Amino acid sequence: MADRNGGSLYSIGLLSWKSLIALLTLALTVFVLSWSLLLNSGRYQFIDQNLFPHLKHYNPLLIDHDQQASLKVFMYDLPSEFHFELLDWKPDGDTPWPDIRSEVPEYAGGLNVQHSVAYWLTLDLLASEFDNAGGRYAIRVHNSSEADVIFIPFFSSICFNRFSRLKAHQKTNKNKELQKKLVTYVTGQPEWKRSGGIDHVIAAHHPNSLLNARMQLWPAMFILSDFGRYPPTIANINKDVIAPYKHIIKSYVNDSSSFDSRPILLFFQGAIYRKDGGFVRQEIFYLLQKEKDVHFAFGSVKKQGIPSATRGMQSSKFCLNIAGDTPSSNRLFDAIASHCVPVIISDDIELPFEDVIDYSEFCIFVRTSDALKEKFLINFIRRIGRDEWTRKWEKLKEVEHFFEYQYPSEKGDAVQMIWRSVAKKVPVIKRRLHASRRFSRFGKPASKSSFPLPRNLLS
Question: Cβ distance 223 to 243 under 8 Å?
Answer without folding.
Answer: yes
